[in-house]
Amino acid sequence: MSEPTTIRLYGTAADSIVDGPGLRYAVFVQGCTHECPGCHNPESQPACGGTVRAIDDIVDEIEANGLVGGVTLSGGEPFEQCAACLVLARKLKAQGLGLWIYSGYLYEDLLAGRPDPLAPELLACCDVLVDGPFVQALNSYDLAWKGSSNQRVIDLAASREAGAVVLWQTSDSFPEVPASW
Ligand code: SF4
Question: Percent of the chain, pLDDT > 70?
Fold first, then answer.
């Protein structure tokens, strides 16, 4: 099967400082089946909403930006457009950009190929995963990079090496890189 050339987006933010450390380009995919009560982006849930964009146009836009230190894939649910996000992620990594990804699924499920057999490949392209659904009762504005305390900010490189979940730690050079980079 041929690779997707388009992706359905809820939107983008060219200068995000809330979707990971530093100045980042955030890509919000359209469509999410988790239906978390209190969802921060309920308009991003319908799979048929949003705008269809050419993946290469997004890559060109990020390359032309020149200011961002990394890219964050969020949503919506990136792993429910796994093939398109994988194409995008590979192109961004080829540019040397750091990549964070948010998901309502758990790391262990994604590693096991749920909800998409390509999920492990998409994880392998990313540096940090913020996982798990948003739980309104566990919401706090004091949490760094996540909305509720059940969610985990996972250092994927360290987790791959350890064969177990390693949480992301800020380094002395915060906010640019975690300690394991
Ligand atoms: S995973 Fe995120 S986008 Fe999806 S319903 Fe939950 S809070 Fe909303």
Answer: 93
Ligand 1 contact, 134 CB (< 6 A): yes
Number of domains in the chain: 1
Q: What is the pLDDT of residues 46-81, one digit of tens each?
A: 999 999 999 999 999 999 998 888 999 999 999 999
Range of the domain at 97: 6-162
Instruction: Give residue-wise pLDDT tens across range 102-148.
Output: 999 999 999 999 999 999 999 999 999 999 999 999 999 889 899 99
Query: Under 8 Å CB-to-CB from 71, ≥6 apart: which residues?
Result: 24, 25, 26, 27, 62, 92, 97, 98, 99, 100
Q: Is 171 exposed, middle or buried (0-12, 13-18, 19+ CB in 10 A)?
A: middle
Decide if 123 is inside a domain: yes
Is 33 within the bounds of a domain?
yes
Nearest CA to ligand 1 atom 1: 104
Atom number of ligand 1 nearest to Cα 44: 3
Give me ligand 1 centre to Cα 129, in Å.
15
Q: Which amino acid is at 85?
A: C
Least confident of 104-113, 158-167, 170-179: 170-179
Q: Which residue is associated with the tokens 């909305």?
A: 147
Q: In what order do the strands lie in the sheet with 128-131?
A: 51-54, 6-16, 24-29, 70-74, 98-102, 128-131, 152-155
